[in-house]
Design a protein that fits this description.
Shape: elongated
Distance between the termini: 38 Å
Low-confidence stretches: none
Helix content: 55-70%
Number of strands: 0
Order of helices and strands: HHHHH
Strand content: under 5%
Number of helices: 5
Largest sheet: none
Mean pLDDT: 86
Structural class: mainly alpha
């Protein structure tokens, strides 16, 4: 089974790591506890839409873009399940990391 909260967390973590930022930096900018942000990134907590918006703002990412990315990953996971992967947990291949050449 594909867990949406895990996919959202992975997308947030990728964005944060691509920016070479720490959990502490982003949690401070988003005004959310470091521990809670960590749990969201690991897919252990479901973030409210308000919290997601705050984290995206702290990362300088549009919420719509993050959700679009997650939606595309979810579609791939559902196709894999439909292709007979079975009852096992589906692992969606990681997206390639984007390197900011301007930094």
């Amino acid at each position: 089974m594909v867990l949406l909260r895990r996919m959202i967390g992975e997308a947030l973590r990728r964005r944060r790591q691509d920016q070479h930022r720490t959990l502490r930096e982003v949690s401070s900018a988003a005004r959310v506890s470091l521990g809670y942000l960590s749990e969201v990134e690991r897919g252990q907590k479901e973030a409210s839409s308000e919290l997601l918006a705050a984290i995206c703002e702290a990362l300088g990412v549009r919420l719509a873009d993050l959700l679009r990315e997650v939606s595309e990953d979810l579609e791939l996971a559902e196709l894999a399940v439909g292709a007979g992967v079975g009852g096992a947990t589906v692992v969606v291949p990681a997206r390639p990391r984007v390197v900011d050449r301007a930094a």
